[in-house]
Structure formats: structure tokens, C-alpha cells
Amino acid sequence: xxxxxxxxxxxxxxxxxxxxxxxxxxxxxxxxxxxxxxxxxxxxxxxxxxxxxxxxxxxxxxxxxxxxxxxxxxxxxxxxxxxxxxxxxxxxxxxxxxxxxxxxxxxxxxxxxxxxxxxxxxxxxxxxxxxxxxxxxxxxxxxxxxxxxxxxxxxxxxxxxxxxxxxxxxxxxxxxxxxxxxxxxxxxxxxxxxxxxxxxxxxxxxxxxxxxxxxxxxxxxxxxxxxxxxxxxxxxxxxxxxxxxxxxxxxxxxxxxxxxxxxxxxxxxxxxxxxxxxxxxxxxxxxxxxxxxxxxxxxxxxxxxxxxxxxxxxxxxxxxxxxxxxxxx
Length: 329
Prior knowledge:
The chain has helices at about 40-45, 95-100, 140-145, 150-160, 175-185, 200-205, 235-245, 280-295, 310-315, and strands spanning about 1-5, 15, 25-35, 60-70, 80-85, 85-90, 110, 120-125, 130, 165-170, 190-195, 210-215, 225-230, 245-250, 275, 300-305, 325-329. It is of the alpha/beta class and about 325 residues long.
């Protein structure tokens, strides 16, 4: 098999050739059809997240075909198309798992972080953390971004609150371009905030139905009920607080963000709140994938060969990707 391996932070990924692995008990071996490139992958490669496992094969938005089934696995069959997300294992016994909050598990394992991920021709995954993908869409590259950009975006949108009719999205990348469509399908108005001067992203947002699109340092034309920050820029937190109305909520949807600058208490006063979203649960995945089947989304992707993983990461880092970058082995 082929895999793009990270041996140390800040180094380019290297092509590694290794034997095709065999699944252990409770595991599946998948032939990777596509793996989207997430900003979390960029944080891992750039050393912005601590790395407990090195070397590692990144990638956690995986669409694959089941090639081999480990002992004890039920309800999976050879040739089935499944998806693999960021959350790759939970302990099942900590307080959070018992409360149905497995996204906060005390002993999780994350795909492409604690265990090798999908920047490869093959991957091993726990069957319990793989999801059936009965979409009519034949192109796996169109589905892969749903496995993280979609799932984390969905959890962030839920955190914004069902009553949030006017939603601001800060950072119009893979997650935002999907959640804009979800929010509009739910009858909400979307206001898109992009990097200053990124006219292409603003035009893209309007083409997907955004009621307004402008620079991240601009004021929306109306007060927002909630804002979701997908960009890893801490300075957007006070900006979003200024944009939401009394009682409004700001949701931080990323796994990493630069430091939040100090801001006057009056921005938080009047029962505004700031919350973060961590990881996902399997319930999130089932809910969102069910929604995506009944409300087809326009998934905008730029595809790269597996060996072009470093180029895909560089394009994502520079903001050159409209929608999502996807590796196709």
C-alpha cells in the first residue's frame, strides 16, 4: 500500500510503501476511495496540536470500500462503501461516554492523529466508528467532506441553537459552505464573513444563498442571533460578539484557534455567550448523514492525487481552495 506519512511536525509528508495491513478483531480494512483534507490535518502537520503518535498518516474524512473484515464484526460486508470520521475510538466507560457525550471521552483515539488515517491507499478502522454511505452520489470525492467538515459543522450549527434564525459564518471554507446550505434548508438566513478582500469567497457564499457576504472585520447589516467561527483566528471572537444581539451565542467550531485577545466585558454582557465544539458523536454522524440524504448538498471540491498531499495542504493553508480539498488515491 501507499501512504503519505508525517515523520515530524513542520516537515513535508513523505510517500511510504508498506505491506497491506490485516484488520484485527472489531476492525475493517478499507480501500480508500477519497479522503478530504481538513484544517485539523494542517494543524497536525504544522505542529499546532501535540502529537502523541509519530510517525502518523493524517486524514480523517475517509470514504472507502470494505476489503477485509476482522473477527466479531457484524452488519458489514465486503464491497460496502463506508465513511470514517475523526472520532475513531472511545473507551465506553468514562463518565462522558456513559452520559452519551462520547465526543468528550477521557481516552479517545482520533483517526489520522492517534491511528493512521486516510492519506493512503488503505486504512484500518474500528467497525463501530464506520458509517454506511447509501448515497446515490457515485463520486466518493463529493462525499468525503461530509465526514468532518459536515459533521463538525452540523454539531456547531446545533450548538448555535434551533432558534437562531440569523446565523453568521466566519471563515467560508469546507465546513461553512456546507452549513450555509443546511441552515438555508432549515429556513435560516446566512451571513458570510471571509478574509478581508476575498471577493471570490464572498461571491461563492452568495451563490450558495447567503443573504450577505463581506469582510470578517465588517459589520453585518442586521444583528445576528448566533455566529459560528470556523476560521482558527482568535481575534474573530470579539468581532462575532459585536455582531450578535443580546442573548446571542458565538460558537467556536475548530479544534485549534489562535489566542483570543482581551475585550471589554460589555461585549459579553447582556447574556451573550461563547461556547466551543469538541469532536463529534456517532449520533451526530447518523443525524447529519440522514439529513444529507434527504437534503442533497452541493459539495464543492478540488481533487488531488495522493502524492499531491503536500500541495493540497499548502493550498488550504494559503486559502486557495474553494470548498474542500480531497485526495483521491
